[in-house]
TrEMBL record:
EC annotation from Swiss-Prot or TrEMBL: 2.7.11.1
The name this protein goes by in its record: non-specific serine/threonine protein kinase
PROSITE patterns: PROTEIN_KINASE_DOM (PS50011), PROTEIN_KINASE_ST (PS00108)
Domain Protein kinase: 1-248
Amino acid sequence: MGTTQHFNFVFPLALSNLKRLFRDSYVPVPLRNRNLDSLWGQIPGLSSAVAYLHNSAHMAHRDIKPSNILIYEEPSGTGLSLKLTDFGLSVDLSRARTWEQGSRARQSAWLYDSPEVRNASPITGVAEPSAKIKIPSSSDLMANDIWKLGCVFTEMLAFLVGGGSAGVAEFRDHITTTEGNVSSDVFNDTRFDDGEQVKPQVLEFIDRMAYRDYRAGMLQAMISGMLAKSALRPTIAHVCEKLAENNFPNIRYNDGVRVIRFIPEDRLACSRFDTFRLKIEEWTGRPIDWAPLNQPLPKLDAGDYMAIWKWHGIDLFLALSQDEFDRYKVIPLLPLTQQDLKAQQAARPNFPMQSGNLSQPSQSSLGTSVFAANVPPAVQTSIDTKDIYWCIERNFTEPTEIYLSPIQNAETLDDEQLFHQVNTAIGSTEGWIRRLFSWKRCTAIDFVQFLVIWENKDQVNPIQKELPPPATPFYNHSVPLPHDFHMRAAGLQMVFGLRDPKKGSGETTIIDMLPKKTNPPPFPRRISEPGWGLHAKMGFSQRKFLAWLFFCIILGGIFVVVWLVFINPTDLQNAFIPSFLFATLLTIAMGLLQVA
């Protein structure tokens, strides 16, 4: 017996769509208790989706409207995501086009059509019998999509700024025009004007929204342009370019290593708790590992930016000054015009690889000539290996002693293996007794030049933050430009990688860019011998401190039990006071040693 095979398409279930959200008196049940304010960040995403259709797929959607934009929950669960759907009317711009006048789908799209398309293809029964139908060109179809997207953005402004669906209803009332007995709440009514103008009431409402919210102000000129006459309407690439220029929320940038978004200082609110924790870090002089709590946001000065990116599900952030932000030229993930892409690529700084001290312009590095002069003749072998030198601080030393620990054969490792070996090196440098009583762990990593301070010893002294200059023999690295930002970003990722080495499994992104020394010859441990590597800085760990307090509580509880059992079963006061005083004094003494 023959069997019939059935193939099915399976799509993720949407929470709702924008039409229901805009028109229903109450927020749809699946969207209640959701962060509706996150829809602001979906405006660049919708623009990018249309840009992909126009520029990559060479398609026109032709039916962009709120009912065809579905609402999903973001994978992180923190916000909402919008997806453009329903390609039943879409056409391939590279082939002959068809026009389905009078179809039900076509008539539903007509309400959001641009005025020139409405004129060219009137609805059956409304148009004059002698009206001619114009087959639109590719540019007409793309301009029509721009108009439709501008209409959707305007209704999103009404919803987000105007107070939900009531704001959308207010917008529709505001733009309703009446001629005789006929009323119309569409953006343009070709029956009452020349067919090429948006209603002035629409622009008035956009201006009103721009006055009430800064994000609407960022979109005001762009949306007005999208609703202009077809000849003046921007392409979708220019819409994306405008969003990127304004640094609109949720735009992400690709620096070749990570995907980053920027938040200006004036849009970032620092909580009092974060401010308090930053003061503690300032007092200790080092970043603190606040796990299991999130790290506090860095303090920003006026004009600064916060760079934020995700690394294996962890939100990482760095503060950038205005100068650092200007030098850190990255390309948005939003599609831009080719002219703008070339301008951004031309603006990327071509600094020489020689980094020098990061606080000064590029200059010759201390000790480079000394190192080159003291290199013994190399013995050529068939196998070269590469080592990464780590400068690791030893706790409970005053002044802090720093020891050199090479990670050998680095070219054979992935990031996970690197993190495991560095954790092992930190443990062996501290010793088990120091590690047992220490409240510290690695909380910062710098790219440094170091000097050996004792003959044939591993003790070193990091002298400045820098990468090995290109003229330095036997050293190489692949840190992208600008070096200062990528060094800080890589250092931050390594700190979190040391906490959970599995995050680097199968990856070599970090280890590939680190400075490595090629062997032979081996690194000579002579006084003042320069080298380049990484400095693992130790800072306080909240988790280790809490573990110490828990240990003191357990120890005090044991003392109380012993007192009550063997000395006096009713003397609770004298049982608790000695244990409390002992734990307090021991904690203070340990704390002083940790600070030292």
